[in-house]
Amino acid sequence: ASTDDVSMVGVGSEKEKLIVEAYIPSDPGPYPQDQPKQNSVRFTSTQVGAIVSGIQPGLTMVVGPPGTGKTDTAVQILNVLYHNCPSQRTLIITHSNQALNDLFEKIMQRDVPARYLLRLGQGEQELATDLDFSRQGRVNAMLVRRLELLSEVERLARSLQLPEDVGYTCETAGYFWLLHVYSRWEQFLAACAENQDKPTFVQDRFPFKEFFSNTPQPVLTGQSFEKDMRAAKGCFRHLKTMFQELEECRAFELLKSTVDRSNYLMTKQAKIVAMTCTHAALKRKDFLQVGFKYDNLLMEESAQILEIETFIPMLLQRQEDGYARLKRCILIGDHHQLPPVVKNMAFQKYSHMDQSLFTRFVRLGIPYIELNAQGRARPSIAGLYNWRYRDLGDLPYVKEEAIFHRATAGFSYDYQLVDVPDYHGRGETAPSPWFYQNEGEAEYIVSVYMYMRLLGYPANKISILTTYNGQKLLIRDVINRRCAPYDFIGPPNKVATVDKFQGQQNDFILLSLVRTRFVGHLRDVRRLVVAMSRARLGLYVFCRRSLFEQCYELQPTFQLLLQRPDHLALNLNEVTPFTYRHVEDTGPIKLVSGVEEMASIVNYKLNQVYQVRMMGHQFDPFSAYLGQVAPSTGAPEQNGLQNSTSWNHAMDTDMPAFSNGAHEDVPPESKSDDVPQLETLVNQDGDVQVESYPNGEMGQSVLADDKNVVAVERSSNEENKMEE
Length: 724
Fold this sequence. Notes:
Blueprint: H1 2-15, H2 45-54, E1 58-63, H3 70-84, E2 90-94, H4 97-108, E3 117-119, H5 135-159, H6 170-193, H7 201-205, H8 225-254, H9 258-269, E4 272-276, H10 277-282, H11 284-290, E5 296-299, H12 307-311, E6 328-333, H13 345-349, H14 357-364, E7 369-370, E8 373-374, H15 379-382, E9 393-394, H16 396-400, H17 402-405, E10 415-419, E11 428-429, E12 437-438, H18 439-455, E13 462-466, H19 469-482, E14 494-497, E15 506-512, H20 525-532, E16 535-543, H21 545-548, H22 555-561, E17 569-570, E18 590-591, H23 595-614, H24 635-642, H25 645-652, E19 677-682, E20 688-693, H26 716-723
Parallel strand pairs: 1-6, 1-7, 2-4, 2-5, 3-4, 5-6, 8-9, 10-16, 13-14, 13-15, 15-16
Antiparallel strand pairs: 11-12, 17-18, 19-20
Helix pairs in contact: 2-3, 3-4, 5-8, 5-9, 6-8, 18-19, 18-23
């Protein structure tokens, strides 16, 4: 019995034997455009779980806190669906054009051919690409591609010594493929099966060798049968793809009208169609009329979309035999950020209409996957909002990358709450109902922005946010008044409200909370989460401390903010936007007492710039704030005016060109009035005059008050009138 058992075990072990061998991917083709685009994103285990769930039939819900890679996860779901289910079509819906364009730009970087992508709606022109993904743009691209492919077919016919008229239409090209190309390939494969022992056989007998003679690298080497056979199959795959594309172009050849072509593109050709929920609602009747079909629905920003706007994209197609064709619905959003905007208070409060379907599902206990690692902000800044989430940690990237360990140059802290007292005896004002403004915060924020620009921070890395439209418009006015005269400062990347900036980010955020009497709508914690989570490297909040520190709903964030001084802490020893100082090392701290002192520091740095410009007649001392260079009569002045190239070049790099020793002393901590104030005036002869203001005038800054705007900010025309 024992020997029988042993023999049975032996038989069983033979059956269970596994053969493991390395997978070698097939050759994609000999040309650079044949190589597949590689995915550079490394996903966390939670993101992988969300992607696996997203490709399963049914409903998938993904909660994505700020900076956790919602868009990358959505794009990978689309990528996997396209490659695993090539016959299925996917509809992408977002709330805003900005989010849709961000998603679409990432899809274009993946291995999905551009001919299968379509972007509908008005925001298409804002896409950061040279390609046109509108309906008309895609139709034109298909027609251009058709001509390119037919010319390749003619070249292939010449290489096979056949008549070139096979490349006249897509139809003739299809016959050419069957009769001449595919038949030659089958004969070649049959011959190779009998001659595998000859290393040079593939090189000698490959039928399309002449056509592929223009490849960057030699395709067939003759050294090994296996290597050459793999390369030959890659070449044939290139030919097969070429004729498949021609078959897809055939419909555009047969259809003559633009409308028919664009409808065919939308209903048959495009595999991934993207639009906003507003466009879907407006055009639903047209989609039903032309027979629009799709199998998968992916909805980004779904926590910002009204319930009815969530249902409409699910019903853009007619049922087939009583069954819905929709197979997958993927909702991605964050119910801890801002809800849909409902302006009617009755609908909002009593009907609870501002609750999205996504939020309703979360509240009802529908299972969802919550992404749990953010890769946007410094861990210290992420601490201001991650208390709102269940288990939000940091990706290794933000812990290891050097840029997150270095301090913000010119500032002692990477984030800070700055207490702004009444300015000229006033706090918040409301010129009209709900139109709140705070002049002190606007002046303070613009002064800090100018300080950053004078250090050399690029303008596109700084955004100014506020919680009210009135303050947004006031800040823009202050920027136009104070920054526009200086070509080396210019406007920031964006001045926007917190609500409009949801879904976007920037390296440095200057935030104005405006209110001084009542907390207002920032009491909604979701708005606070959005406001705190926009910055990557630096966040500076300007507000009335005594008001916001008492707000119970905002306590977790403001307790963290108030662990640091409530006066802006600068490091005036740093004069460039780069520092090796560690983020936890504050360096020498200069606490700014208020709006006036901050403006004085900015003036001091501006004066340093003018002194550098005038040194040695090397720089033009006034072209930064005059629209044109005044004519000069003296030879030395002419020389000085013409040699401004180096300064202008420095400004092109977004960094003021300080010479050695230009920043000798920082302004004294106690008396900002000791800083000399320089005013440059240009007379009608073009001579430059430099005058110093007495100490008494320094408190009312050149850049801080409308009443004291000096000739530095006047245009050349106004100066001429004044002197006349």
